[in-house]
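Readers outside the structure-tokenisation community will struggle with the description of the input data as it stands. For illustration, here is how one protein appears when written out as sequence plus structure tokens:
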Amino acid sequence: MEMSITVMQYVTFQGDVDIRSIKNIPSSAILLDTKTVMHGEATGHHHTFSDGQVLVYEPHENDTVSVRGEDVKVQKYILVLSDATLTHQEHASQVIPKGNYAILQEREWDVLENQIRRVID
């Protein structure tokens, strides 16, 4: 079952992680036993919640979020029950407010290749 999620107003970034508020987390999402939302492909670093009450969910493989007309694959969903701090070894910590969020892989325009590509951490 493919699902496209509606993005709400809150948007922030931490390195290669794009965090966007959403209305709700789909019932098809699977609760995970982790506070880590993304691992770095090149460095082994990770984006992990260090405090607050946070539930992390695995999306259905075809879940997407529409960002400026582009459907972007959801990496994880998070439900922040109380303000929580997202940490990373090379980026400033960020407090993420209570709410539902989709975690996306940051993208950038590659002018040499004339295409959008994922940012690698």
About this structure: The chain has one domain: 4-118. Residues 4-118 form one domain. Residues 6 and 69 are 12 Å apart (CA to CA).
